[in-house]
Write a structure and sequence with these properties.
- The protein has three helices and nine strands.
- It is α+β, with helices and mostly antiparallel strands and 142 residues long.
- Strands 1, 2, 3, 4, 5, 6, 7, 8 and 9 form a nine-stranded antiparallel beta sheet that branches.
- β5 and β6 form a beta hairpin.
- The relative contact order is 0.25.
Length: 142
């Protein structure tokens, strides 16, 4: 992946991820999304997500009433971490997150999700897309 290493963990701020990192992120796995509650405590939840290497954006489909979306609405532009793990490999995408109910952005999120997971996400009332502008990537064995 390039970038500095600390005990085998590589950190990068490059414009594009390595081919091996992109391949790993293309696998239809779950990740853990960590947000900060209004009281300052962490909220971590498993999610499905998509990665756009060209735009350095990760997207998570959810509903506005979910804890993660409410955390982000309470503190717009707050930092989040999204970590995908498989065996002894992991990659964490960090950045600022926004929540949108704009029909075009939600439709784009649904389209990307459907391509990655080969089926559309659930379609509950209040569906929104969380978009993470990734500015830091950490990985191990990628």
């Amino acid at each position: 992946m390039g970038g500095p290493q600390h005990r085998g963990v590589q950190v990068t701020l490059q414009n594009h991820l390595s081919a091996s990192a992109q391949d790993f992120l293309a696998k239809p796995l779950l990740a853990t999304l960590s947000t900060i509650r209004p009281d300052g405590s962490l909220h971590a939840v498993p999610v499905r997500f998509t990665w756009d290497d060209d735009m350095r954006l990760a997207r998570v489909m959810t509903v506005a009433s979910s804890r993660k979306a409410r955390n982000l609405a309470a503190n717009p532009g707050s930092r989040v971490a999204l970590c995908q793990v498989a065996d002894f490999r992991w990659i964490t995408l960090e950045g600022t997150a926004t929540v949108s109910d704009d029909p075009r952005e939600v439709a784009d999120g649904v389209s990307r999700y459907t391509r990655r997971y080969l089926s559309p996400p659930p379609d509950p009332p209040g569906r929104v897309v969380v978009t993470i502008a990734v500015d830091s990537v950490m990985a191990l064995n990628i």
